[in-house]
Amino acid sequence: MGSITLEHVNKSFGEVEIIPDISLEIEDGEFVVFVGPSGCGKSTLLRLIAGLEDTTSGHIKLDGEDVTGAPPARRGLAMVFQSYALYPHMSVRDNIAFPLKMAKMPQAEIDKKVEYAARTLNLGSYLDRRPRALSGGQRQRVAIGRAIVREPKAFLFDEPLSNLDAALRVNMRLEITELHQQLKTTMIYVTHDQVEAMTMADRIVVLNAGNVEQFGSPLELYKRPANRFVAGFIGSPKMNFVDGPEAEKHNAHSIGVRPEHFTLSTTAGAGQWAGTVNVAEQLGSDTFLHVEVEGLGLMTVRTDGEQTFRHGDKVYLTPDANRIYRFDAAGLALQD
Amino acid sequence: MATRQTRTLARTMMAPAVIVLLIWMAVPLAMTIWFSFQNYSLINPMMTGFAGWGNYEYVIGDPSFTQALVNTLLLVGGVLLITVIGGTFLALLLDQPIWGQGVLRILVISPFFVMPPVAALIWKNGFMHPGYGMLGHLFKALGLEPVDWFAQYPLFSVIVIVAWQWLPFATLILLTALQSLSEEQREAAEMDGANAVNRFRYIILPHMARAITIVILIQTIFLLGIFAEIRVTTGGGPGYASTNIAFLVFRTGILSNDIGAGSAGGVVAVIIANIVAIFLMRAVGKNLDA
């Protein structure tokens, strides 16, 4: 069991208000990702749930029980830190066993659980090493191992992959997702990387300046962003925004078009917007064109990798009429 | 230090300092060893010449030597015990966020800046004097008999004074070690359900092990040669009750004017210091490789 409810949670450090007012319902077994730019309060929110910070006002409930004032140990949550926070003077085995030892579990049972965790995470041959002798990915697994042996109500991950190289990050992303499918325990995962958020989450909380901008499934966020911030944050490369007369044609203050929702042509006049290629980023599978459109500014356009473009090439763009996002003056999405 | 040229330059530049240091160390040591095998007493200037092992037999054979050796070990051990345990406690306290932290830390460090003879005098007259010392007044106020510390507990009194002086050093080193512990590790331990005592035992103490080792090593080197505090307070007495090896060398060589025997005592002191150092490195040095 592990449903987490936040009710009007507020957190201030002295005069500075980090989180003005957040209410969230996280269901048992869900994989929820907190995503947002740095300084948006996502880590603070996680630490509030963990009990490492006190809430200024509001309530936090675990399985319906109010734990707002409870110390971290009492809450039955496990956390994986960005720096892994392994105990350097203990072997991998002792690191994983530490929470069980603190819970005064009999040694035989501890051994069994450590063995099981090590098998789940492929750590078998490293059990007697010190954390220093492990690679980044292995340390990450030990930190996860230390979390799973406790059989917590929920796992909290604080940017756990940010210290790994790109290839390993993709691997660990898969491993954590698999782990979630296997354990079916509630997981809250904090990241600034929208790709991690999109690929791992059941539901995503997009945070900005301590406020929840939108809470929904990845595709919901992609297809129906609540406002301009979410539209710009979710999706890679970023959505293109156009203000002014061009937007007014669509009865909106501004419109947004994702790079993948353009039809591209090199035939003169075969498109709504004419532009010049500034930079072409070729990934092989795709090419991202940065096109300077006359009167509208720089736009990113995704095209397949078949055609080669050079700096200065003339291109003609047509936004997909059904996939134009419209926003009002306050940045809120306009429904059709 | 990559090229041959920079290496040669480095050696040339360092040579004067190294040579001076070597002379500074080697010449007095050689002279001490030389004197220790000579009949050389200022009271009896007619008796000269090679003494063989006579001086050594005289120094080591004397019962005062055994007592001085025991006193030295008690002094070093006692001060280490007080400073390491007390320093750990003080460091834990000073690590807490409190108002006026900066001033408080300077106050805690300040005894270290007081010169040993001055510190000893403050304790001798200000605190431990049975007539007008603070402790004497305190005992009287409580209706107790004032204690004449230096007569009744001479070695213990010296230990207290030296510990007072070295406590700041231990506190300072241990505090910096404490502050280098990553906040996330503490928090992880907290999440793992470790209470304050367990966090100290399993996380903080192992983290400080290296700093404690350094404190023990450095302090031992200095504590083996404690002199000023004894000279100012008890003068090594009553009898030999508060005489350590260093003070015994002084009593033999300077007070009794027997340069030969004093030198022999000095050589023995050097050997003992080295033995202690070797044992210490063996016992606690393994913490340093970690």
What does this entry look like structurally?
By secondary structure, chain A is α+β, with helices and mostly antiparallel strands. Chain A folds into two domains: 229 residues, P-loop containing nucleotide triphosphate hydrolases (Rossmann fold, 3-Layer(aba) Sandwich); 88 residues, Nucleic acid-binding proteins (OB fold (Dihydrolipoamide Acetyltransferase, E2P)), CATH 2.40.50. Helices cover 27% and strands 32% of the residues of chain A. Chain A has ten helices and 18 strands. The relative contact order of chain A is 0.12. The mean pLDDT of chain A is 88. With 290 residues, chain B is mainly α. Chain B has a single domain, classed as MetI-like (MetI-like fold, Orthogonal Bundle). In chain B, 74% of the residues lie in helices and 0% in strands. The chains are: A alpha+beta (336), B mainly alpha (290). At the A-B interface, strand 6 and helix 3 of A face helix 9 and helix 10 of B.
Features:
heterodimer; A: 336 residues; alpha+beta; Rossmann fold; OB fold (Dihydrolipoamide Acetyltransferase, E2P); 2 domains; six-stranded mixed beta sheet; five-stranded antiparallel beta sheet; 18 strands; globular; B: 290 residues; mainly alpha; MetI-like fold; 14 helices; 0% strand; transmembrane helix (chain B); MetI-like_sf (chain B); transport (chain B)
